[in-house]
Every structure is written in C-alpha cells, then in structure tokens.
Amino acid sequence: MIRSLLTRILVVCAVAVVVGFFSSSVLAVNVQQVADATCLECHEDQVLPSSNIHHRIMNFELAGIQRGCESCHGPGDAHMEEGDPSKIFSFANASAEESSQKCLNCHKSLQARDFNLGDHATNEVACSSCHSTHSDSGLVKPDPQLCMECHQDIMTKVNFPSRHPLKEGKMKCSSCHAHHGSMMQNMKTHERMSDMCLGCHADKQGPFIFEHAPVAEDCTICHDAHGTVADNLLKQNEPFLCLQCHESHFHAGREGLTMAKEIPATGQHSENPFGTAGWRRAFLTKCSQCHFQIHGTDNPSQTVPGYGKGIIR
After folding, report:
1. Which of 36, 219, 269, 278 is the most buried (most CB within 10 A)?
2. pLDDT, tens digit, 9 for 90 and up, residues 110-164
3. Residues 6 or more apart from 99 whose CB is under 8 A from it?
C-alpha cells in the first residue's frame, strides 16, 4: 500500500512538472509574439518569411537563447515610447565589430568560430554586409556574385581562358573558401593548402616514388586556382615557369643529329627537320613534351643524369 501511494505521488509530481514546463513555454512564446507584433506595427516591411531560419525558431522555446526582434535589436520599450531610432540597436548605424558581435552571440558554431581570425573581420566587413537576416535565402546576393562585388581582381581571373567552372554553376567560392574565417588563409582546411585541391584532383596526390617537389609542398607554387591565361591554371607558360626552378641544363647546349636515326623498336627512320638546333627548340618549347608525368610517377625514367627521377613515364 505504501508503494502504491508513493507511485501515485510520483505520477502527480511528474504531471505537475510537465504542465508547468509547457505552461511557461507557451507563456514565453505568447509574450514574445505580442512584442514582435508591436514592432511590426511600424516595421511591416520587415516581416520574416516562413522559410527564414529566424522565423522558424521564434515559435520554439530554446534554452538560453532569446528569440524575436529584441534578441538582435535589444530592448525596445524606450524606442516604442519615444519613437527615437537612437533608443534601439540598429545594424545600419553600428560598427562592423558591434554588428558582427550581435550575430556571434548565437552563431558560435564550428562554422563561425574563426570569424575574428578571417580577412572579413580584419577588413571590417560585418556579417550584415553579406547576410540579410530578414530575407528568404539569408544572403544579400547569391554566391559567387556577392563575393565578386568586393573581390574585383578575382572576378577578372575567373573570366580568363583557363579557370574553374564558376560561370557554369558547377562551383562556388564557398566550395573552397571558408567565408567565416579559418586558420589556413580562409580555406576550408586546417592542414595544407594543397588538401583543398587534392579533394577533387585526387589523381595528383600520390604518394609517388618519383615526386615533383612543388606538388608535395603546395599546388599554388605553379597554379593560380582563380584563373590564368596559360593552360591548366599555370601561373606562366612553359618553359618559363619551369625555368624559375630548373636552370637550363644539358638540353639547351646539346646539338641535334643532322641525319636520319633508326628507331630500334620499329625499324623506322626519324629525321630531324630542325638540324643541330633541334634539341634547343624542343627544350625551349614545353618541358612537359618529354616530362609529361609532371605531378609524379612510380616508373623510373631510365635516364642516367636524372637517376630515374625525370618523371618521363
């Protein structure tokens, strides 16, 4: 009988707690709805669309998170009584740091944790410069059009002959960049810069037995990811790009054959139409005509001077 009595008491207490919780939640929601409705009497153009994330969370009680207009704009009593714009927080009149801090009070997630380390915060670009809290999409303009408004130099590069497919809509700036800041030059990686490139270009990753040192170090030594005039996003055409690291070696001073040479494998005869300057002309055209496995290979080149490291095959 005592056990039955205790059971009844526990059930009554549990019901009371649940009813009290939902009553307080409903009361909080109703009070918040009344306050927001008061704001919209004057600011009817700021009604949040139903798809907006701020609108969706307004009707839920979230622990430790204030909701509604006052969660971003601060207490509105004095502003409503006097009609003075200076009596309430305005994003339009606030500094970039003050404006962004309002957003970061809630947006402390992994995505925005490094915001103060990024170039946007350093150059006083506020969250509200790119984001519209009252809009449907959340962005002032779609990516990449929004980014190009400030990054005019990059907009020029993405229109070069060799470029990534941004114009075709297959990529966006946010495919590689962490707009809210990161520890690695605003890139979506915290390790190496090349990790971003190798995420798509996995065939260039290796590891290879015979490696090309710039590939293992940083792709941007040879490539400009935003776009170039040279092919394959190279910063400069061959052989000038290669000659920045590789001085003119024996190819440039070697004289070509003036007679036809028999190819042992086929028995055919190959003539050199360029005479003694044939080697120099070939070398000063494109290094990758011979060294075409430029990112690395597992096959030795069978060249004595390079000890198999010529990345020829």
Report:
1. 219
2. 667 778 878 888 898 998 899 888 877 678 899 999 999 999 999 999 999 999 9
3. 91, 126, 127, 128
**Are 140 and 111 in the same domain?**
yes
Same domain? 152 vs 224: no
8-state DSSP, 228 = B
3-state secondary structure at position 55: helix
φ/ψ of residue 103, rounded to 5: -70, -40
Q: Residues 50-95: pLDDT tens digits? A: 777 777 776 665 555 667 788 888 888 888 888 888 889 988 888 9
Contact 80, 38 (CB under 8 A): yes
Residue 41 lies in a domain: yes
Give how many domains the chain has, as a whole number.
3
Kind and range of the H or E run holding 96: helix 96-104
Helix (H, G, I), strand (E, B) or coil at 297: strand
The answer to whether residues 122 and 149 belong to one domain is: yes
Q: Any bridge partners for residue 234, and if so which? A: 223
> Of the candidates 56, 87, 118, which is a domain's last residue?
87
Peptide bond preceding 214 in cis form (omega within 30 of 0): no
Q: What angle do CA 256, 239, 280 make, to 5 degrees?
A: 15
pTM higher than the cut 0.85 = no
